[in-house]
Design a protein that fits this description.
The protein is an alpha+beta fold. It has three helices and four strands.
Length: 118
């Protein structure tokens, strides 16, 4: 039990430390990634107006077959397409408390392939 509480505390500290350095605007929003055990979610957030501009998840993606990293890459392409519709060309990547590998890295790579500058 103590290990779980310590893990949650360190994760929360990482999240706060990461968020303190990253800020999104309407022209360059924050691309925030959340991963659960089953799905991966991505949001484009304008911190000035405190609004979510666009969001996508692997749950809504039609390419939800295969490995989680493959579906996460498709999620990155999907969020980049939604950003193009809003005339957003670049974003600040917010990995949250997660390490930059696996699904989180796949979302960033997919967004870059979709034309979003990160």
């Amino acid at each position: 039990m103590a290990n779980i509480k310590e893990k949650n505390r360190t994760e929360e500290r990482r999240r706060i430390r990461n968020k303190a350095k990253i800020f999104g605007t309407s022209t360059k929003p924050r691309l925030s990634v959340f991963r659960s055990n089953k799905y991966t979610y991505a949001q484009l957030i304008d911190d000035d107006a405190r609004k979510t501009l666009a969001s996508a998840s692997t749950a809504e993606s039609s390419k939800n077959k295969g490995k989680k990293t493959e579906t996460a890459k498709a999620l990155g392409v999907l969020i980049a397409e939604k950003a193009k519709k809003l005339n957003i060309k670049e974003a600040v990547f917010n990995k949250g408390p997660y390490l930059y590998h696996g699904r989180v890295k796949a979302v960033a790579d997919g967004a870059r392939e979709g034309g979003l500058k990160i």
